[in-house]
Structure prediction request, 375 residues.
Amino acid sequence: MNRGVRYWGGMILLAAGLSAGLFASLMRKSGSSQDHVPIVQSRAQAAVTVQICAECHAEIVASFASAPHGRTLHRGDEPEILARFAGRSFQFPGSSTRIEFHADAGKLSLTSSTFAQSLPVDWIFGSGTHAQTPLILWNDARGQTSAIEHSVSWYAGGQIAATLGMDGLKASVGGEALGRHWGTAETANCFGCHATYVPAQEGQIDFDHLQPNIGCVRCHFDAATHARGMAGGAETKPIERFAALTPAESVFRCGECHRRAGELGGELKADDPTIVRFASVGLPQSPCFQRQAEVTLANGKPARLDCTTCHDPHRPTEQDWRNHTRVCLECHDSAQGRAIDCTHAPRTENCLKCHMPAVPSNDFLNFTDHWIRVR
Ligand code: HEC
Ligand code: HEC
Ligand code: HEC
Ligand code: HEC
Ligand code: HEC
Ligand code: HEC
Ligand code: HEC
Prediction:
């Protein structure tokens, strides 16, 4: 998750509502203390809410509520969150470090064998389609919002286990075992990619007015004007359509959060295991993406490949491989003079298995390799 986001350490941490002494033990060893500008800029103003769109786009708004984009961020007092975490515990294998989750006055909190005090969990990241990770918040000495991405997560198979990349985090003392420590800019980035509007003043996030989840206007930038115009019966400019963007522009838009190739730095190599996490980095490397203009579809239209060819961002992800391979076969059909056929498997096979496989990132989490290629 955090590749391309720089680590910001070395702050003196002072917890809101917790004793300075206890929280001093959460401190990381001093490093260079540098401010970074958040890479994800929240909207400047509170966004119009989904309800406004529902008036005319009821079906999309209804399906969106169950889509992962509509559920990227949760509060620690939601019943579903409590049902998944409270009363459960995790012991890091080969160590005495043990984390326990509790319901504390209707809100999630956790205790660690490495840390003396129970810590409130204000926010949980992720829809749960793949995983959910608690975030522990506090204000640093300057009153700015900082966070710990917790070392233990809930996985879609129901397991409670180490957060991706944190299996090794089992220091037996202090705050280290609690997870990855993030400064103000990185904390703002977490919320920036998982929320619609993140108001902040002088580095302190205003959680009372934060709008969680990826609302309509995060992707449809001009939707507020559109909604007002439509309601008034006088829209001056039609709303932007993704189909009018070039495939590269369209992928770039999703890449604001799903990452862009330029952010990773250096030459991209197909065998780099981190790329699999970032669909919008992988897909544009595929010959299918780069040479799509060469293909004319059966309906006479030029072929088009971007994220929306396979994904409807308003709905849960299509799980049936047949609906994905249909996309492959629309282009790959040498009998019709389109792109070449597979030299290895018949057209009835599941192309994804070999050319877009799910790659395990840890015991409970897979990502789909979107760099389509002969492997
Ligand atoms: C008063 C009714 C109304 C409201 C409110 C409204 N829309 Fe629309 N919207 C429409 C109509 C009608 C169209 C089709 C008109 C057109 O094609 O230009 C449309 C078209 C769109 C399109 C483009 C469809 C395409 O063909 O690509 C998008 C995207 C969209 N709306 C998003 C939104 C969002 C997001 C909101 C909430 C912020 C919203 N709309 C609020 C009536 C409305
Ligand atoms: C504002 C940030 C943001 C933007 C922009 C964005 N996404 Fe996402 N997307 C997310 C987050 C966060 C998740 C993780 C949801 C979760 O926790 O499961 C996600 C998840 C997904 C998933 C996986 C859903 C699943 O079943 O797990 C797909 C597919 C997806 N996005 C496609 C897109 C496409 C296509 C676009 C561009 C049209 C796009 N996203 C733009 C933030 C964004
Ligand atoms: C640049 C945008 C961006 C930032 C910054 C970001 N996320 Fe995400 N996050 C995403 C996207 C996109 C997804 C869905 C695809 C994926 O998993 O990479 C996601 C998925 C997740 C998930 C669901 C599980 C999973 O792996 O799919 C969790 C949990 C999560 N993020 C937590 C965090 C936390 C905690 C932070 C801050 C330390 C953070 N994210 C920062 C964009 C971002
Ligand atoms: C993650 C980005 C993203 C979010 C969030 C998002 N949309 Fe869209 N929306 C898209 C894309 C991309 C398309 C074009 C889809 C395509 O070309 O298949 C689209 C198309 C549409 C359309 C026209 C196509 C259709 O299916 O009728 C409407 C209307 C629309 N969106 C409304 C909304 C509303 C309302 C919301 C909030 C509930 C919303 N969108 C949230 C990315 C997004
Ligand atoms: C050729 C079809 C295809 C295209 C194009 C495509 N995806 Fe996917 N994507 C898939 C499949 C298949 C899955 C796995 C679905 C499943 O079974 O859960 C997937 C899964 C995902 C997931 C969930 C996490 C994972 O890795 O499994 C995210 C996030 C995602 N896609 C984002 C994107 C984005 C962003 C784009 C555009 C850059 C994109 N996808 C383009 C087919 C596609
Ligand atoms: C928009 C059209 C289009 C779509 C959709 C598409 N491809 Fe391709 N693909 C191409 C073109 C064009 C080439 C280059 C063919 C050539 O070398 O002559 C290509 C090349 C390939 C190659 C060879 C890659 C290499 O390493 O040389 C594979 C494998 C492949 N595609 C598999 C797939 C699979 C699997 C899917 C569906 C998940 C898919 N393609 C979807 C157009 C497409
Ligand atoms: C069992 C694994 C497997 C499946 C399933 C599979 N492929 Fe392949 N594909 C391969 C291998 C291996 C190669 C390389 C063959 C070679 O180099 O001789 C290949 C080559 C290709 C090529 C490049 C052909 C060339 O002449 O360079 C394309 C295009 C392709 N596959 C598309 C697809 C499509 C589309 C599907 C789904 C209908 C598919 N493949 C299903 C394993 C598979």
